Amino acid sequence: MTHRRIGPLPSTERRRELVESKRRLEGELDRPVFGVRAPFFARSAGWLEEVERAGYRYDASDGRVVPSPGNLPYRARRPVQGGTAVPSIPVSTLKDGVSPCCLTWLRLFAPFGIHLLRPNPRMFYLHLHEFLPPDTARRLAPLLRPVLTRHCGERAFGILDEALARIPGERVTCSEWLFRRGLLARNRELG
Predict the structure, then answer these.
(1) Are 44 and 8 in contact (CB under 8 A)?
(2) Is 191 a domain residue?
(3) Which of 45, 51, 139, 162 has its C-alpha lying 20 to 30 A from 7's C-alpha?
(4) Which of 44, 132, 38, 24 is nearest to 141 (CA)?
């Protein structure tokens, strides 16, 4: 809801963040919200159980914001924590195996970043702020300005178009992808 690092928050605040953000999004979108990603991928012990109790059906918080050998292989896993039914979708990496497969890194490495895409990433993520015009992005956090303003706005749309043109195959929602792999049951809301 507030995009704070949710992992270090007390459990009552984490629950409020999870429940209230889902409620608000569903109200504004007028449709169910099935998945969640922790801001900055900052999770806590028992995260999947908290996600399940808040009513989400999958989590996409396995990953890192920065290149790291700790980035997980790009495949969905059945959950292993405490018997929760919530599957987790790790973020794919670029060809280097450590950089997250996301528009941020493609923008930062542009024009060469596009060549770092794996032929078939499972998860590609982006942030809405990446499409802000440079003058708007410059008003954001000073330490992040170089990251937020490099090739943002219209240029970001071009980089995204080029990335999508290089990734073969069908694009589906996380829910559909998990359903097809037998990790999420289909119900009326999923179609």
Answers:
(1) yes
(2) no
(3) 139
(4) 132
Domain carrying residue 22: 11-180
**CA angle (28 as vertex; 14, 138 as ends), nearest 5:** 75
Chain centre distance of CA 100: 10
Q: What is the DSSP letter of 130?
A: G
Q: In the 8-state DSSP scheme, what is residue 182?
A: T
How many Cα neighbours within 13 Å face the side chain of 28?
Answer: 7
For residue 110, the 8-state DSSP code is T
- pLDDT, tens digit, for every residue of 135-157? 876 677 777 777 778 898 999 99
In a domain, 189, yes or no: no
* Domain count within the chain: 1
- Cis ω before 111 (30° cut-off from 0): yes
Assigned token pair, 111: 């024009």
DSSP 101: -
pLDDT for 22-32, tens place per residue? 999 999 999 99
Per-residue pLDDT band for 168 (boundaries 50, 70, 90) equals: confident
